[in-house]
């Protein structure tokens, strides 16, 4: 495959990951500001976050995508079908201002969460299918960067658009972005020069449990799953609590929003791209260890800054370090997720891994909130830093096995 075509595919997959991330971020992380302005209680805003629950069940959504074939090129057809459903939901939620209709707003947000979560499965199954293994670490870094940019767009820019242009405008923009990304898949599907792998359709279909067992029976898959469970959630939880931490330490709201929301998001996106670029040069084993060591140092610096009350300059520097290390770690995690996704089981393996990742990513912040109430910021940060230390020790022990498995997958494709 030529370099221009690879670049175009990477750009297309990155764009689609961005436009699928923005609606959930906007509705569940940006919208609470508007809700509060319109009299929603804290309990109502908290319960509204339950609309994110479909992400936990991605492994179940992957089953029909893997098994129900919608003709030749069924992953493309699944993606287009779910994109059409998402467009219809944008039209429904954008017809009238629903900020005062709590039940309807929650129901449509929940439906959008299902459609966007579901569409992510055929999209990234296609990335595994169409991109060479040598390009998949880069694809993971682009996806990570897209999620950081999605946080900026969904959590900030769309709120500004709504306040200036009205309730409908963000949904029109999100729908337009989705159309721009989805339509090229029709052209790609029609090109014989970019055939879809047919191994998944030719192979006999085992049971769902056999599919999942087959994933864990891959060489290195168990070690990789342990890394997937531990590498990101602790630093991700720190990022979640950075805004309230900085507010409670006396930093103005506007400064916090700019530092964490804009500068931090851009830093995370930049280091996602750099992390994906450096990983093949460093080697998987070395990259795993170095990126987690960077995360450990960033959290240790932040913990020391809060404990010693070193002031706003050190706090800002620590936050930027957390963003940078989080970007590099997430890029590596997304890239290796693609490596451990078997081409014959693209959707089911991807859905299983992202469910494991999501459960850990949601569980650790809940535990961190309990720690915050009991131990304060210093105690919470110390425990989360120890969690990253545990992940680093684990990564040090299994990094060789994971690298050998990833290399054997890459060598197998070359053969």
Automatic annotation (TrEMBL):
<feature type="transmembrane region" description="Helical">
    <location>
        <begin position="257"/>
        <end position="276"/>
    </location>
</feature>
<feature type="transmembrane region" description="Helical">
    <location>
        <begin position="140"/>
        <end position="161"/>
    </location>
</feature>
<feature type="domain" description="Major facilitator superfamily (MFS) profile">
    <location>
        <begin position="1"/>
        <end position="403"/>
    </location>
</feature>
<feature type="transmembrane region" description="Helical">
    <location>
        <begin position="167"/>
        <end position="188"/>
    </location>
</feature>
<dbReference type="InterPro" id="IPR036259">
    <property type="entry name" value="MFS_trans_sf"/>
</dbReference>
<feature type="transmembrane region" description="Helical">
    <location>
        <begin position="105"/>
        <end position="128"/>
    </location>
</feature>
<feature type="transmembrane region" description="Helical">
    <location>
        <begin position="75"/>
        <end position="93"/>
    </location>
</feature>
<dbReference type="InterPro" id="IPR011701">
    <property type="entry name" value="MFS"/>
</dbReference>
<dbReference type="Pfam" id="PF07690">
    <property type="entry name" value="MFS_1"/>
</dbReference>
<feature type="transmembrane region" description="Helical">
    <location>
        <begin position="288"/>
        <end position="308"/>
    </location>
</feature>
<feature type="transmembrane region" description="Helical">
    <location>
        <begin position="45"/>
        <end position="63"/>
    </location>
</feature>
<keyword id="KW-1133">Transmembrane helix</keyword>
<feature type="transmembrane region" description="Helical">
    <location>
        <begin position="224"/>
        <end position="242"/>
    </location>
</feature>
<dbReference type="InterPro" id="IPR004752">
    <property type="entry name" value="AmpG_permease/AT-1"/>
</dbReference>
<keyword id="KW-0812">Transmembrane</keyword>
<feature type="transmembrane region" description="Helical">
    <location>
        <begin position="352"/>
        <end position="371"/>
    </location>
</feature>
<protein>
    <submittedName>
        <fullName>MFS transporter</fullName>
    </submittedName>
</protein>
<feature type="transmembrane region" description="Helical">
    <location>
        <begin position="377"/>
        <end position="396"/>
    </location>
</feature>
<feature type="transmembrane region" description="Helical">
    <location>
        <begin position="314"/>
        <end position="340"/>
    </location>
</feature>
<dbReference type="InterPro" id="IPR020846">
    <property type="entry name" value="MFS_dom"/>
</dbReference>
<keyword id="KW-0813">Transport</keyword>
<keyword id="KW-0472">Membrane</keyword>
């Amino acid at each position: 495959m030529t370099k221009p075509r690879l670049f175009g595919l990477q750009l297309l997959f990155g764009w689609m990951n961005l436009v699928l991330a923005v609606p959930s971020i906007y509705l569940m992380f940006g919208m609470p500001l508007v809700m509060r302005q319109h009299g929603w209680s804290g309990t109502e805003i908290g319960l509204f976050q339950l609309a994110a629950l479909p992400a936990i069940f991605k492994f179940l959504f992957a089953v029909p995508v893997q098994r129900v074939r919608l003709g030749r090129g069924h992953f493309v057809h699944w993606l287009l079908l779910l994109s059409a459903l998402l467009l219809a939901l944008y039209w429904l939620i954008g017809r009238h201002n629903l900020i005062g209709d709590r039940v309807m707003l929650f129901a449509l947000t929940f439906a959008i969460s299902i459609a966007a979560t579901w569409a992510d499965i055929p999209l990234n199954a296609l990335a595994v299918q169409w991109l060479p293994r040598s390009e998949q670490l880069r694809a993971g870094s682009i996806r990570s960067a897209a999620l950081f940019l999605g946080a900026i767009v969904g959590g900030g820019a769309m709120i500004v658009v709504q306040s200036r242009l009205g309730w409908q405008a963000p949904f029109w923009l999100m729908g337009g972005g989705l159309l721009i990304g989805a339509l090229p898949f029709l052209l790609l599907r029609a090109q014989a020069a970019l055939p879809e792998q047919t191994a998944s359709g030719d192979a006999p279909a085992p049971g769902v449990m056999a599919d999942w067992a087959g994933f864990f029976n891959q060489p290195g898959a168990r070690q990789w799953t342990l890394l997937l469970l531990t590498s990101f959630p602790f630093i991700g939880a720190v990022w979640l609590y950075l805004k309230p931490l900085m507010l409670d330490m006396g930093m103005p709201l506007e400064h916090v929003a700019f530092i964490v929301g804009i500068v931090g998001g851009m830093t995370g996106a930049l280091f996602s791209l750099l992390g994906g670029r450096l990983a093949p040069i460093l080697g998987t084993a070395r990259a795993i260890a170095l990126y987690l060591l960077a995360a450990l140092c960033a959290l240790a610096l932040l913990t020391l800054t809060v404990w010693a009350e070193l002031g706003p300059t050190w706090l800002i520097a620590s936050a930027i370090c957390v963003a940078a290390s989080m970007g590099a770690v997430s890029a590596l995690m997304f890239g290796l997720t693609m490596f451990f996704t078997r081409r014959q089981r693209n959707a089911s393996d991807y859905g299983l891994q992202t469910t494991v990742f999501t459960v850990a990513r949601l569980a650790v912040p809940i535990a961190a909130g309990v720690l915050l109430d009991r131990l304060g910021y210093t105690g919470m940060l110390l425990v989360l830093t120890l969690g990253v230390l545990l992940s680093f020790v684990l990564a040090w022990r299994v990094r060789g096995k994971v690298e050998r498995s990833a290399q054997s997958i890459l060598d197998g494709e070359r053969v």
